[in-house]
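Revision sheet: C-alpha cells.
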Amino acid sequence: MIEHTLHWLELAGEAVNVFAVALIVAGFMLAAIRYLLRFRALAVEENFTAFKIELGHALTLGLEILIIADVIETITVEPSFASLQILAFLVVIRTLLGWTLCLEIEGRWPWQSASEGQQDE
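Predicted:
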C-alpha cells in the first residue's frame, strides 16, 4: 500500500514539474506575443518594461510551483540528511530568485509595503 502511494506521489511530483515548466514557457510565449502586438503602439522602453514584468510574473509563479514539486519529490525518496540538504538549498535559491524578480518587477523587496518602495525612488 505504501509503495503504491509513493508511486502516485512520484507521478504527482513529475506532473507538477511539467506543469511549472509549461507555465513558464506559456508565460514567455504570451509575453512575447503581447510584446510584438504592442510593438508599434508603445514606446520601445515602455513596451520592453511591460514585457519584463509579464515574463517576471510567469517566472515567479513557475519557481513557486517548482518548490512544491521539490517538496513532493523529497517526500517520495528515502529520507536522508542529504535529500533534506538538497531541498533546503533548492528552496533558498528559488526563494532568492523570487525576491530578485519581485524587486525587478515591483521596484521593492517583498517585505516592503508599496509606499516604502515608492519612497526609495
